[in-house]
Each structure stands twice: as structure tokens, then as C-alpha cells.
Amino acid sequence: MNEHINLTEYEPIGEASLYKEVLKVFGSDFVSGLPCGELRGFIEASKNNADEVGHVQATNENEAAAIAQGASLAGKKPVLYMQNSGLLKITNEIGSLLIPCQTEALFVASWRGAPGEEATQHLATGAATIPVIEALGLPYIVGATLADLKKLKTNMERAKLPGVILMKKEKFNQGVEFTQRVIETEANRGDWHKEHSGLITLSREEALNIIFSNLINDKDGVFSSTGLISRSIFHHHDAPNQFYNAGAFGFTSSIALGYAINAEHRVITIEGDGSVLTNLGSLNTIGHHVADNFVHVVLDNATYASCSAEQTYGSGKIPEVALTFGYKRAFTVQSREQLLAAIAEINKNNDGPQMLHIQINSEGQRDFKRPLGMADIANRFRNYFQ
Description:
- It is a single chain.
- The protein is an alpha/beta fold.
- The protein is built from 15 helices and 15 strands.
- The protein has two domains: 161 residues, Rossmann fold (3-Layer(aba) Sandwich); 194 residues, Rossmann fold (3-Layer(aba) Sandwich).
- The strands form three sheets. Strands 7-14-15-11-10-8-9 form a seven-stranded parallel β-sheet, sandwiched between helices. Strands 2-1-3-4-6-5 form a six-stranded parallel β-sheet, with helices on both faces.
- Helix 3 packs parallel to helix 5, helix 3 crosses helix 10 and helix 8 packs parallel to helix 14.
């Protein structure tokens, strides 16, 4: 008996129609990314449908990947849009976060510099795109038919890996309709409660012990950053409500945001000053999305302590930047008594995002066991809150 072939399955899907087909085939229910003119139709459809399918426009592609990971931990099926140059840019986040966590995120990437293009600024990255995707071991397709999408979905599920749709150019230099810009009155900055006690005596472990005894409970989702902070928490305070960002340095708060906007319970992210300074744009995205359930703890020792204690610059200004970007309140503390008082205030308020900026010294343990089983940790976290 001849198999019935639905010819529409093999007809090319245009970029403007791709969003609808991706949702249908992949069941995607969360979207993030960075704008690209060649994905204009896909992005516009994402924004127009944001009430049905969550959409967060990121400040950079790395942040989008981290937000997608957080959304995945909340049970979402994320899809990301970006140019192929952005895909190359985030190989670290793909390799050290999405792949180890077995996150089946779908990338929709415009392929600039594809064979036949003449724009010299895209030729090198265009030529590198497929070799890099293949080196990462990701399933991918070039262009899309319905049959291609179904095959890609099957391959992603079988490998438990992200997948990529590369879309070649359809049309360039199309006109864009701009809306009239209206300058809104700048909102009042949140409250910055600063305490100074002179000599900084708190160590990392002392601060974390106070935090886990007085701020965090088993109903909070806890996210900790790459390096000594996550290793210390894993070693001393491991619990199933915690996710350790072992690889994507600088993007712990972005992972936490992706989770927080898809969860109702409180979310606490703990990272160092070097991590925050690596991705200051995340403060803007967090402040814009006004996650009331978001508490941002920054352990500030003014060094890259997980490396060889190189100095960071401007860490004392982190709370001011956060408040400028929309955080509701920030607390800067230097002693045990100040920390306990700030935690008491945070526990009384659900109006976030809130920042707890703890200035600590560079002392602390280094011989920790490491959180290595990323897929198991991600699944444990996801299952705990289901």
C-alpha cells in the first residue's frame, strides 16, 4: 500500500510564517532573543502573541540563552531568535549551560554570510556557522519545511540537545514602520539603604551561613553563580530547590529571571560582583520586567576570587545601577548585624526586585566538592517545584 504524502509538508516555510509553525510542531511556549532585521516577521509575531506565549527581549544573545534556561527549569519549551553572529557569540552558554543541562531549546537564526551573499562583514562568520554548529553536535536544518521541523524535533528529543533552524535571506533593506517616540517621566529610583562599619570582617562562608539560616527557605528557588559561591553552597547547603550555574559566567541572574517570570514563589539569585559586572545589562532586563518575587544577593569582595583575586572595578556602584534600571530597593551591608537587619526588611517586602549587596572580605574556603552533574541538578530542581 502506497504511503500517502502530504505535499504541504515539503513546501518551504517563509520567515514570516515560521513562528506559527514552530509553536505548532515544537509546542514552544516561551520566546527570547535579540532583534535581527531578517527575522522581523518572526519577532513581530512573537511580540504580538506575548499574552499567550511569554516573550522577553534580551540585551544580548548570551542573556537570552540564560533566560531560556531559566524558563526551561520552570517547565517551558523555549525558542530563541538571533543572527548567526549571535549564535557564534554564545557558544560558551550553549556548551557550558544548555548542553550539560540537556535543555532542548530551539534557535531560529538568520544566516548572514551564507553562500551567495556579498556583504564582506558577514562572510567569515557565515562560513564558520555550520562548522561551529556541527562541532557543538547540535542538530540543525537550513531553511524549513514542515517535514524538516518534525525531523529536527525528533533529533533534538533523541539527543536531548538544543537545535538550530538557519534561515537564509529572503529580502533585505525592507522599510520599517517606526512608532512615534514619547519620552516618559523617569520613575523615582528605589531606596538605597547603605550601612558602613569600616573594616570589612564578613567572609563568604559567614555571609552564606547567615543567608541560608535567615533568608532562604525550602519554598524559594535558589540560583548561584559560577565558581566558589556555587561550590560553597553545594558543599555546605545543597538542597533540591537550588540550581548551580557551573559554567555560564555572568548569567546567573538571567537564568533566575527566566525562571522567576514563569513562577509564583520567591526566587533568590546569589552571585559575586565580578559576575554582575560581566553582564550589567541583566539588571536592566530584570528591572524592566519588575519581577516582584526576585531577590538579588551580591557578594562583593571587589575581586575575581574564584580565579587569582584580580581586582574588579566599580563594584560599589552595582546597587546604584540596579536602582537606576528599576530595582525597588537595595541594601548595602558590611557586618553581621547589618546583614540580619537587611534580611528582616527583605522578608517583610514582596515588592521587588530587591538587591542585597554584601561587602565581604576575600577570605574563605576553596577546597569544595563541585556540582558536576548538571542534567541531574536541572531535573532535580524542575521536579522539586512541579
